[in-house]
Amino acid sequence: MRGSDRPLCEAYDVALLDLDGVVYIGRRPVRAAAESLAKARAAGQRLAFVTNNASRTPSAVAALLTEVGVPADAADVVTSAQAAARLLAERLPPGSDVLVVGGMGLRHALYAAGLRPVSTAAGRPAAVVQGYEPTLGYGLLAEGARAVAMGALFVGSNGDLTIPGGDGPPHPGNGSLLRVISSATGVEPIVTGKPERPLHQESVRRTGAKRPLVVGDRLDTDIEGAVNGGADSLLVLTGVTDPLGLLTAPPNRRPTYVAADLRGLLVPHPEVVRADGGYRCGGWTARRDDGGAVAVTGSGDPYDGLRALASAAWEPGAEPSRDALADALAALPL
């Protein structure tokens, strides 16, 4: 992990923020999100809300953000549906028929891109685009499979296997639904959402960001997407990823910074330095031996300890076991 001697809201011109698990969960605001984002805006950072969810239009997303205390309009929102529509518009003639296996978010994005959304395979559409829609039924999936089997280009808005389930277990996401058409036809979709690059590129294009910071709660979409796009990232622990998940992250899913929540945008982040045979951050030092054992000692901000411990866990060599990392985490009052 790197440090920043300036608050992240001052060091990066645009925050590309995931939504579920970062700003809200379902229709409930995440702790400290609204006030933190208001302060980041006041400090001059621009905010863009970047979502893999293709079921809502940008206007609907902006309305939900406003409902949870984060004022926004449609221009502040970038969706995987918009990234999918741009990819299709770049590959198909204007006005081409595209069979939509999804909801209004996809249809609106296709109209805006100059394409014609349709609902059946009868006219041999040029492409099929699939996005998450909670009311999606068998009939539309069957039409999509038929069109793909006849040669239509197959695009998926995102490949998330699950989505947050509120207070319960995760629900199946669009990645799980994509397997229906893929399994029936043997054709793998082109995916535009995180962690693939099209959505990141669309976000940078729409915001004009010079130094974007990707902010998210998932390693496999938000953080890997930042790595794929060559951007720095902030992992917040208000959603899917927990501290142990962070420590066991593979190289392509390791964030630049970590914080408990969006208040991490408002503060500097101390550097992790090699010292005393280990890694020191703030008042904490983490050490790892040749056998993979790891320990952290010290006092102060426990997230400094987590940063130090992550650096020790990610050091090349014998990887610590999950049990060893869990034992080390117990020393931190997170």
From TrEMBL:
It comes from Actinomadura chibensis. Residues 281-332 form the GCN5-related N-acetyltransferase-like domain. The keyword Hydrolase applies. InterPro entries: GNAT-like, HAD-like_sf, HAD-SF_hydro_IIA, HAD_sf. SUPFAM superfamilies: HAD-like (SSF56784). This is HAD-IIA family hydrolase. Keywords: Hydrolase. GO terms for cellular component: cytoplasm. Coiled coil: none annotated. One of its GO terms (molecular function) is phosphatase activity.
